[in-house]
């Protein structure tokens, strides 16, 4: 069905009847081309995606706070899918209320689709094709966003684990001080006189255990950075294409809203859907930037300055050097995916709209 709609959209674009035909065919073509690109990306990187999915939820599932965040993300995304379904139904209702034999998309058919007996079936097919196209696009986006969301949570969990190194150390120091305070005053000189010049076996074991924990955290940190780079490699092409396509589609929608009032409801729905899509992409990109910045603070707050072992300090220093710049996702052309970039896309869309408006006038 999607391929048939793609073919019809291309034909409508090649043989335009009006500016509505051109822009409608272009919008259909952009949705289907981005969906096809995303599906091919998933097929090509299926082994890497499977490896990422097996690695990421390993620590996330143990914390109820982050599990609740994950559930909220699911609720929001499925709410967006329901909105897509409702919007498809609303476009059909719009045509029925106006009592006109027309379609939301200008698609070429090898027969007269506006015949009274055929029109309802073609309209239902168009709604289903519309829904299928948007669902195909949204479901792949859901996979990408879920991986990015869990990656950002893993950064936050790692930050928490680094900070717990200092918390555990402080708790042990408090217990030691409390024991000394509770002891009789006469025992203080004896305690001081019996202190060994070298480290005790218990203290050595504690340092060895702490070093092993720190090494595991460093390994997790390194694996997480490699995972982030792999995710960026997977989503770079689809996100780059989405950035470009949506900026052009938003421009065409706003432009059509100024010249075609009969399709206003359809255009408003399309505008909302595309703004939500690009804002979600930028929001999840921003989550990686923010969580990686918080991880740097967590590594610094692990109490490294109090470590007596030089090797442990070197491990912390290496981890901090790897995080000199926040982790981020980038499109082709080195454009970072962030909230700031969302503002730039809106500015570019307005510039394209102004240019189209001046040319049209």
From TrEMBL:
Can you name a GO cellular component term? plasma membrane
Name the Gene Ontology biological process terms: signal transduction
Positions of transmembrane segments: 76-97, 134-158, 230-255, 261-280
The membrane-topology field of this record reads: Multi-pass membrane protein
| Gene Ontology molecular functions | odorant binding; olfactory receptor activity
Pfam families linked to this entry: 7tm_6
- State the family it belongs to: Belongs to the insect chemoreceptor superfamily. Heteromeric odorant receptor channel (TC 1.A.69) family.
- UniProt-recorded name of the protein: Odorant receptor
Species of provenance:
Polypedilum vanderplanki (Sleeping chironomid midge)
